[in-house]
Every structure is written in C-alpha cells, then in structure tokens.
Specification:
The protein has 263 residues and is α/β, with parallel strands linked by helices. It has eleven helices and eight strands. Helix 7 crosses helix 8. The structure holds 2-phosphoglycolic acid (PGA).
C-alpha cells in the first residue's frame, strides 16, 4: 500500500479544559519520540487548538479540528469555519458517528465540510462505519458505500491525495473509558471493511487512488490491541478516542506503530 508512514490521530472529544490540555501536552512532548515513519496528530477541544499550537513543534505533533462549519464566514452565530482554522490545523475530522447520530449530520453536511476543508488546505479525515443494527442486518457494505459516496461527491481525483478515510464501526466505539474491554472487529472483519472501502475508491477514482488513499481504523483502540489492527492489510493508522487521553496508552500506540511495515 501507498503510505509507509502510519498516521495516529488522538481525538480527545469534549474532554480536558484548556489548562488540562496544556498540561497533558507538556507531558506528551517529553514522552512521544519523533519517528520518521509515524505522524502523530492531536485533536483537542476547539478552544485548546490555538494555545497548543504555540506549545508544540509541528515536526512532532500536528493538529486536527474535531468539527467546523462548512461556510467560510457570515451570520452563523456560534460556529467556527474551516477558513478560521486554516493554518492552525493540518487535519479536520468530518462525519464522525457522534456528529452523524447526535447532531444529525447527513451526507449533505458531510460533503460540504469535506469541500470546505479542501478549499482551506485542511485534510479531511472522513469517518465512515455501520451501527450494530446495520451490521446485524448485513448492511455494512451498503452503509460504507453510501457514506463514502455521500462524503466524496464533488471530490476530484487530484483532491484524493488529501483525503483520509477512517473506518469506525459505531458498535466498536468506546464511551471514552471502556476502551480496554469493548468489543472490536476481528482482523478478518476489519480486512473485509477496509477492502470494501478501497474497492469503492477504486471504482470511483481508479486503482492508483485506491492504493494510495490513507485508511485508518478507529474503535476502542489501545496500547495492547493497536498492533493487531495495524497489521491488517490496508490499514495506515488509527483514530484513537479514549486511549488518547491516557499518556501511557497513547505513547504505547505510537511506539507500536513505529517500525510496523505497511501491508
Ligand atoms: P474510541 O473512540 O477509541 O474511544 O472508541 C474512537 C473515535 O470515536 O474516534
């Protein structure tokens, strides 16, 4: 597969105050080694992006926004746009299942956000994944197809190098604390889902794009199970939720990614 560099993204969700985030980063800076083969991205609360950007060395950590609004500016009280995040973040998470299910974001918003990120030089991390019910009903493939098509409509072949896709089966996501004992996909399940995603990219953008697009896995990843996900063919990295708030676990995940051959 394309990228030999692993991408490890820590999604802190709605946790840590600005001060707590800053203290946490202060510790991470001393514990996370920079490796040429691993790119580490932190996604703190929107409020902490600016202070953390002053605290980090971009060669060690990059930043991602957890969310943003798709218009660039205007009368949208309370919103933050991708154009306001431009230069501050390298990535932005789009279509996370919590945005889809709690905030009712559908294909149209997801697609508009992907476009807004791209026009502001931010790489979208497009999250896709089926719920437990959809999985039980044998709809995994259809759901992934719909979410990929829904998110990538209007994305050109040349934009594809900027896109990251994260496969996050909703049934495998932790509540932020139970990531060590939560149900996760088997390597075979994961291989099948990643294959489905890459096949669809191949169908839409050709074989080269399908090999080169970076695809992450997310859902109850931790220091002990990271290797089993990272060794599945076609997995280029992890989107880590709960375990990214635990220094020990997060550092272990990064060290696991370091030196793992991409298949
Ligand atoms: P989790 O979250 O690792 O806590 O399951 C992942 C995510 O929601 O991105």
């Amino acid at each position: 597969m394309s990228s030999t560099k692993k991408l490890i993204v820590g999604n802190w969700k709605m946790n840590l105050t600005i001060h707590e985030a800053s203290v946490y980063v202060h510790h991470l800076v001393t514990k996370v080694q920079s490796h040429r083969d691993v790119e580490v991205v932190l996604s703190p609360t929107m409020l902490a992006l600016q202070p953390i950007s002053l605290q980090i060395d971009r060669r060690q950590f990059k930043l991602a926004a957890q969310n943003f609004y798709w218009r660039d500016h205007g009368a949208f009280t309370g919103e933050v746009s991708a154009s306001q995040l431009r230069g501050l973040v390298d990535y932005a998470i789009v279509g996370h299942s919590e945005r889809r299910h709690i905030f009712h974001e559908h294909h149209k918003e997801v697609r508009s956000k992907v476009q807004a990120a791209l026009r502001n030089n931010i790489k979208p991390i497009l999250c896709v994944g089926e719920t437990a019910h959809e999985r039980m009903s044998g709809e995994m493939r259809d759901v992934l197809h719909d979410q990929i098509l829904g998110g990538l409509t209007n994305v050109t072949s040349s934009d594809m190098s900027e896109i990251v896709i994260a496969y996050e089966p909703v049934w495998a996501l932790s509540d932020g604390t139970n990531y060590s004992e939560h149900k996760v996909p088997t390597p075979d399940d994961l291989k099948k889902a990643i294959g489905t995603i890459r096949n669809q990219i191949s169908h839409l953008y050709g074989e080269k794009a399908s090999k080169e697009v970076r695809v992450l896995y997310g859902g109850s990843t931790n220091g002990s199970n990271a290797a089993s996900f990272l060794s599945v063919e076609g997995v280029n990295g992890l989107l880590v939720g709960g375990a990214s708030l635990n220094q020990h676990e997060f550092v272990k995940i990064i060290e696991t990614a370091h030196g793992m051959e991409s298949k």
